[in-house]
């Protein structure tokens, strides 16, 4: 169904998480510790998704989530976990949706994280911390991240998944200023 929907909107990138999320963004199957068997099952499932994506011209992207504020108990949520899974499978139809908002809350060191994840990034999502608003409203230096991404040779999709702090046109201007000026 997701592949069919992606064709309708002409977007071959499909987002997945370590478990289903309910209507409030909370993990359906909460885990404090992920077992070895669950890691193996996740790797097998993602490899099958990658093969399905290859068959249908789609790319599945595993998104990291923060476990401290928004998505407590989500298995395979940390960027470290998503990088480990995606790099192990190493398939062109399985990438990372590297969400820097989530990574800042859970792990920090965003530029180094981008360098580590670069070979497997399919898309980068951004929002500022705290508050999940547009660049320039919080603690993340998105101008510095934009310069670093350019220096790394990243030329893929960067999407703003944020709330506007006020005027939505101003929020879009701040996003463009952070990423298009570099």
Please specify the SSE layout and strand pairing.
Blueprint: H1 2-8, E1 13-16, H2 36-56, E2 59-63, H3 79-89, E3 94-99, H4 100-106, H5 110-117, E4 121-126, H6 142-152, E5 158-160, H7 168-180
Parallel strand pairs: 1-2, 2-3, 3-4, 4-5
Describe the structure.
The mean pLDDT is 93. Helix 6 links the parallel strand 4 and strand 5. The longest helix has 21 residues, at 36-56. This protein has helices at residues 2-8, 36-56, 79-89, 100-106, 110-117, 142-152, 168-180, and strands at 13-16, 59-63, 94-99, 121-126, 158-160. The protein is globular and about 45 Å long. With 182 residues, the protein is α/β, with parallel strands linked by helices. A five-stranded parallel β-sheet has the order 1-2-3-4-5. It contains seven helices and five strands, in the order H-E-H-E-H-E-H-H-E-H-E-H.
Supply the key terms:
182 residues, 7 helices, alpha/beta
Summarize the structure.
By secondary structure, this protein is of the alpha/beta class.
């Amino acid at each position: 169904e997701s592949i069919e929907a992606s064709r309708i909107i002409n977007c071959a990138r499909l987002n997945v998480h370590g478990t289903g999320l309910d209507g409030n963004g909370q993990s359906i199957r909460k885990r404090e510790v992920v077992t070895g068997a669950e890691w193996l099952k996740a790797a097998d499932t993602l490899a099958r998704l990658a093969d399905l994506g290859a068959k249908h011209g789609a790319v599945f992207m595993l998104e990291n989530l923060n476990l401290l504020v928004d998505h407590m108990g989500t298995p395979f949520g940390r960027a470290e976990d998503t990088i480990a899974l995606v790099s192990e499978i190493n398939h062109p139809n399985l990438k990372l949706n590297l969400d820097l908002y989530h990574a800042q809350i859970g792990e920090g060191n965003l530029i180094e994280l981008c360098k580590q994840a670069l070979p497997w990034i399919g898309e980068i999502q951004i929002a500022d911390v705290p508050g999940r608003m547009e660049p320039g409203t919080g603690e993340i230096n998105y101008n510095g991240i934009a310069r670093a991404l350019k220096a790394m040779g990243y030329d893929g999709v960067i999407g703003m998944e944020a709330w506007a702090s006020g005027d939505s046109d101003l929020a879009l201007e701040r996003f463009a200023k952070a990423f298009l000026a570099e």
